[in-house]
Design goal:
single chain; about 280 residues; alpha/beta; Rossmann fold; eight-stranded mixed β-sheet; 14 helices; 8 strands; globular
């Protein structure tokens, strides 16, 4: 059984009313929710999942339209919709409070969640601690890749028709660190998960989170500045999208919030999993 098959076998499906969402759970005690990014899935967490489950009740899931979850062509893939379904899943799992570790546009979901929590303290599931990995926390610092720009453009839908495993893999590999490159098998797994159910044809719809970040900047960045819960950042500084330049901005806008810098790229949990675990243990003793 391949690693992907083993991961799928560990999971269950929850009917959100908009489609079935795949989720994996392990461990006991305080809840830790793992939020993946674009264009990947909960598989991003497989190298740290079991170690985290020794300390927490860990929940990871594929957002609708990603990975092993359903991929309806007419689905709502806005950040607001992703948050709505996240809270619905957690409510069904009996989770009223959780730590959150987020990555990429999972960061944006977490920011929207935090903003909602500040505005509506009676929210069904509250964040108690929040740690970000690489991602566009500040839209003014996000350096979109060519593939992202094209997907966001009027030709985005056409582009999804010609994306291949090779072009997808090259684009993804380019955001890894120079000394922590993905293997061919890694890239093949990413393509398998993304293209499952013809998910590649949704990429231009998913990418609109970049515009949402811009239009909601005041609310979502404001949530970080006003946060009543501890916030931290673990960042791969060689990431061309949200690396060292984003860390500098984070420190400037959120002084005093702890930061751990790692010599890797956009996927610290994949590229340097042990170092991420050690950093998280220091941040959350």
């Amino acid at each position: 059984m391949s690693n992907l098959a083993a991961w799928m076998a560990r999971g269950s499906y929850f009917d959100t009313g908009e489609g079935h969402v795949f989720h994996v759970e392990a461990g006991t005690g305080e809840v830790l929710v793992l939020l993946h990014g674009f264009p990947t899935s909960s598989w991003d967490w497989h190298k740290v999942f079991d170690a985290l489950a020794q300390r927490y009740r860990v929940i990871a899931f594929d957002k609708l339209g990603y990975g092993f979850s359903d991929k309806p062509r007419d689905g709502d893939y806005s950040i607001t919709a992703h948050l709505r379904r996240t809270l619905k899943l957690l409510n069904a799992l009996g989770v009223s409070e959780a730590r959150v570790l987020a990555h990429d546009n999972g960061n944006t979901v977490a920011q929207a969640w935090l903003a909602h929590q500040i505005e509506a303290p009676a929210i069904s599931t509250r964040i108690s601690h929040l740690c970000f990995l690489n991602g566009g926390l500040f839209p003014e610092m996000h350096r979109a890749r060519l593939m992202q720009k094209l997907l966001l453009s009027p030709v985005g839908g056409l582009l999804t028709r010609v994306i291949t495993a090779g072009s997808f893999g090259r684009s993804l590999a380019a955001v890894f660190g120079p000394d922590t490159r993905p293997t061919r098998q890694d890239l093949a797994d990413y393509w398998t998960l993304m293209s499952r159910g013809q998910g590649q044809y949704l990429l231009h719809r998913h990418i609109h989170y970049i515009r949402e970040r811009r239009s909601n900047r005041a609310r979502w960045v404001g949530a970080l500045e006003q946060s009543p819960v501890p916030i931290a950042l673990i960042d791969g500084v060689h990431d061309p999208v949200s690396g060292a330049h984003m860390v500098e901005h984070f420190r400037r806008l959120l002084p005093g919030r702890p930061v751990v810098e790692l010599p890797c790229g956009h996927f610290p949990q994949v590229e340097m999993p042990q170092e991420v675990l050690e950093a998280l243990a220091r941040l959350w003793p």
